[in-house]
């Protein structure tokens, strides 16, 4: 069973549209869409925005629906100036930028018993790089910084970028990474850029959410074919 997770309905709607035929199961305040794509069993869901929602849905996909691989699809704000709206990147590692117990001398993003950066699955990443190459798609790899904030302010953007050497920011990736790592499930986090996370990012986000979500969803489905 392969899980495909997004945060917003807009991020998974393109998948459901392509699949056409699926069964719906409601659980834990979510709808899980069960489908078969080219002989592969899929469970698809949108978690709702934020780290806690995403952690819950990822856990259910693994523990209740038996997902053995998880692919995340969605949009993100760019921190690296080489990333433009519509570009895609996958996370090589992920960090929670809003986790702060620095009052006790710990670095940002760290709590005892965990590591600051969580690494995604090298095999899934290599498969993505291979598919991008054969399709002539420009796919970057980088650090994704996750937090329960829509970043739309130059100062906060620069802080996240320099503190974690991060390339993009969003609100779910690191929590999904933590769940998958803890439960031993290989995961892949893909994002297409919807905005540049500075002042006024909310306007770009509204304008480019759907087109960038489509780009990411199409790519993730092309990966499923090769799994
Ligand atoms: C969260 N997602 C944004 C949800 C915004 C509005 C109703 C991705 C994202 C993001 N997250 C795109 N751009 C971002 C940014 N600049 N900061 C944080 O995963 C919901």
CATH fold-type name: Rossmann fold
Unreliably modeled segments: none
Shape: globular
CATH architecture: 3-Layer(aba) Sandwich
Helix content: 25-40%
The biggest beta sheet reads:
5 strands, mixed, barrel
Attached small molecules: ligand 4EZ
**Strand order within the widest beta sheet:** 5-9-8-6-10
Beta-strand content: 25-35%
Number of structural domains: 1
SSE string: EHEEEHEEEHEHEHEH
CATH superfamily: Nucleoside phosphorylase domain
**Top CATH class:** Alpha Beta
**Number of beta-strand segments:** 10
Termini distance?
Answer: 11 Å
- Structural class, judged by helices and strands? alpha/beta
What is the multimeric organization of the chains shown? Answer: single chain
Per DSSP, the total helix count is 6
Structure in words:
By secondary structure, the protein is of the alpha/beta class. It has a single domain (2-216), classed as 3-Layer(aba) Sandwich (Rossmann fold), CATH 3.40.50. It contains six helices and ten strands. Strands 5-9-8-6-10 form a five-stranded mixed barrel, surrounded by five helices. Strand 2 (23-27) and strand 3 form a beta hairpin. The mean pLDDT is 98. It binds ligand 4EZ.
């Amino acid at each position: 069973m392969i899980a495909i997770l997004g945060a917003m309905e807009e991020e998974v709607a393109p998948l459901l549209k392509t699949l056409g035929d699926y069964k719906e199961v409601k659980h834990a305040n979510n709808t899980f869409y069960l489908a078969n794509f080219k002989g592969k069993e899929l469970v698809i869901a949108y978690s709702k925005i934020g780290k806690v929602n995403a952690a819950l849905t990822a856990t259910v996909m693994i523990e209740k629906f038996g997902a053995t691989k998880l692919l995340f699809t969605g949009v993100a704000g760019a921190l690296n100036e080489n990333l433009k709206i519509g570009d895609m990147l996958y996370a090589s590692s992920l960090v929670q930028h809003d986790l702060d117990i620095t009052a006790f001398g710990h670095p940002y993003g760290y709590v005892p018993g965990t590591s600051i950066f969580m690494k995604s699955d090298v095999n899934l990443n290599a498969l993505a790089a291979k598919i991008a190459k054969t399709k002539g798609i420009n796919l970057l790899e980088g650090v994704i910084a996750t937090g329960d904030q829509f970043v739309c302010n130059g100062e906060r953007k620069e802080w996240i970028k320099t503190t974690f050497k991060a390339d993009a920011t969003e609100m779910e990736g690191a929590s999904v990474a933590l769940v998958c790592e803890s439960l031993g499930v290989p995961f892949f986090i893909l994002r297409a850029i919807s905005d540049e996370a500075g002042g006024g990012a909310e306007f770009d986000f509204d304008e480019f959410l759907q087109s960038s979500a489509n780009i990411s969803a199409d790519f993730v489905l092309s990966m499923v074919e090769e799994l």
